[in-house]
Design brief:
Blueprint (H helix, E strand, L loop, with lengths): L1 E7 L5 H17 L3 E12 L5 E11 L2 E9 L2 H24 L12 H6 L1
Parallel strand pairs: 1-2
Antiparallel strand pairs: 2-3, 3-4
GO molecular function: ribosomal small subunit binding
Subunit structure: Associates exclusively with 100S ribosomes, which are dimers of 70S ribosomes.
Protein name: Ribosome hibernation promoting factor
Amino acid sequence: MNLTISGHHLEVTPAIREYVQNKLERITRHFDHVIDSHVFLAIDNLTEKEKRQKAEINLQVSGKTLHVASAAQDLYAAIDMLMDRLDRQVLKHKSMLQNHNHVAHKRLPDIGEAAAA
């Protein structure tokens, strides 16, 4: 999996990079067919008292790109919310991939034949 972490109005420190990598291990534990991931961290200076930390991720899996965004007062809290949302989306995507074990309509017994027997 290729991982890219970039920051806007923020220097990506090794501690932040390691924190994001540790959180992404949970995602790859559930679903290991991840091709590429791009994490975007930003700080929006709205006013002096209210600073909003944002985290976004684009996770490219085979045939689909999952996009999740979150915002919080603390960057680590934003990353935690981001990974929780991403985990739910990955599990949903994985269940959709595995949910192809339905019986074809051709193979079902005809109701008229079952009543006649």
